[in-house]
Amino acid sequence: MADELSTTPADFLASLPYDRRLASYDVRGSEAWARALERAGVLTSDETQAIVGGLESVRGELESGEFPFRLELEDIHFNVERRLIELIGPLGGKLHTGRSRNDQIATDTRLYVKDAIAATLQRLKAYCRALLDQAEQGIDVVLPGYTHLQRAQPVLLAHHLLAYVEMAERDAGRLADALTRADVMPLGSAALTGTAYPIDRDALAADLDFATVSRNSMDAVADRDYVIEFLSAAALTMTHLSRLCEEIILWSSDEFGFVRVGGDYASGSSIMPQKRNPDIAELVRGKTGRVNGDLVALLTSVKGLPLAYNRDLQEDKEPLFDAADTLLGSLEMMAGMIQTLEFNDDSMRSAAESGFLLATELADYLAAQGSPFRAAHEIAHSLVQTALEEGKQLRDLTLEDYRRASERFEQDVLGITVESAIAKRDIVGGTAPSRVRDAITAARARLESSES
Ligand code: ARG
């Protein structure tokens, strides 16, 4: 065991096993760098053509799976460079003029983060669409809203689902915001001081599709805040998904019986034939721990580093890739799983009708008749007590029962229902049906108008 697990300094240093994922970005950055060197008068146009042509062949090998990855060459940068030299000869050695692996890796990682954010934003949209579709389909469905996991007041299922759309939209906002700061080109910073060659960095940034160029070479090679911002937004997004998963898990239990998870998103037990476990929801909830860990790992790796580049920064990649993969996969699963949800409207309704969820309505009723809310609350509380003692629901109480508690009650108190309670929340942000319908329409419009 000990022998199998032993390593060498070279293996310990190598980042190739994971940074090979950056290969296409490394080639892209290298081609742009060759063109920048030509513009700076460092490479002739023939040399540039030969180098870019060689890099195209490297790209071809990468795409066809024929590229010879060599662990002994430590990382993706050395692998690409060595292959280029093999393909076009010593001229390939000119590519690294005025550049360092330090600005190279920062460039590759930023290109990756930009793509990862764009892909995440797409998946977030699909997830929101799935939530909105369910909200629309179940627009009349009611269930208890909970506080402290105790039945509190009735709400529309759509209102409940829209809460998650709100969270997802803020998550998208955070990711888009992180994207603006990731969209800065570090290339030209060289090892730490800025390159000694007259590179037109603006033209280079345009070539690589970066919005702008870094202003300080030491910062550009040393910080990884753009990764941390992505991880932070990813962790929070996962945390939101995890909360919804927790509800799906609770709601699909026999205790709640509110929903059935369909298709491949639930699995049977190997021993208990009756079971349908919401495994996908559980896994997304579980994986949230990993992504939170990825964030903490990188924060901790960076916190003690003096300027500028330190090898510790190589530790940014595994958390980054892990978080991106986990988040993308989780969002895809969530969108798919939400589409399969079959809500049990009847059991949600009967839960909303039992358990004194309308007690607040009684207090509001008395308050509307002029009773101070505190006193009204006490009277409503006493009515709940009476009903409880007599083993009744509020709907079983007669007008006489009500009038014994307060003279202010009139016949219309018997007309208080789940529907009337919900309809009264007719305010921006409230659960009244017309408000929720408007909220769905508005959310759809925001979703379809956002660029990403
Ligand atoms: N593999 C390194 C990383 O991921 C690339 C930069 C290496 N730079 C250096 N000076 N050793 O950070």
What does this structure look like?
This protein is mainly α and 452 residues long. It is built from 18 helices and six strands. It has a two-stranded antiparallel ribbon with strand order 1-2. It has a two-stranded parallel sheet with strand order 3-4. A two-stranded antiparallel ribbon has the order 5-6. β1 (142-147) and β2 (150-156) form a beta hairpin. The model has no long low-confidence stretch (mean pLDDT 96). The site of arginine (ARG) has 10 residues, from α6. Arginine (ARG) binds next to α6.
Keywords:
binds arginine, two-stranded antiparallel ribbon, 452 residues, 18 helices, two-stranded parallel ribbon, mainly alpha
Beta-strand segment tally: 6
Element-level helix/strand string: HHHHHHEEHEHEHHEHHEHHHHHH
Strand order of the largest sheet: 1-2
* Unreliable residue runs: none
Computed structural class: mainly alpha
Number of helices: 18
Roughly how many Å apart are the termini?
49 Å
Helix-residue proportion: 55-70%
| CA radius of gyration | 30 Å
Q: Tell me, briefly, the overall form.
A: elongated
Task: Describe what is shown at a glance.
With 452 residues, the protein is mainly alpha-helical. Helix content is 61%, strand content 5%.
Task: Outline the secondary-structure elements.
Layout: H1 9-13, H2 16-19, H3 23-39, H4 45-64, H5 76-88, H6 101-137, E1 142-147, E2 150-156, H7 157-182, E3 184-185, H8 201-207, E4 212-213, H9 217-222, H10 225-251, E5 259-260, H11 279-302, H12 317-340, E6 342-343, H13 345-353, H14 359-368, H15 373-389, H16 399-405, H17 418-423, H18 433-449
Parallel strand pairs: 3-4
Antiparallel strand pairs: 1-2, 5-6
Helix pairs in contact: 3-4, 3-6, 3-8, 4-5, 6-7, 6-12, 6-18, 7-10, 7-18, 10-11, 10-12, 11-12, 14-15
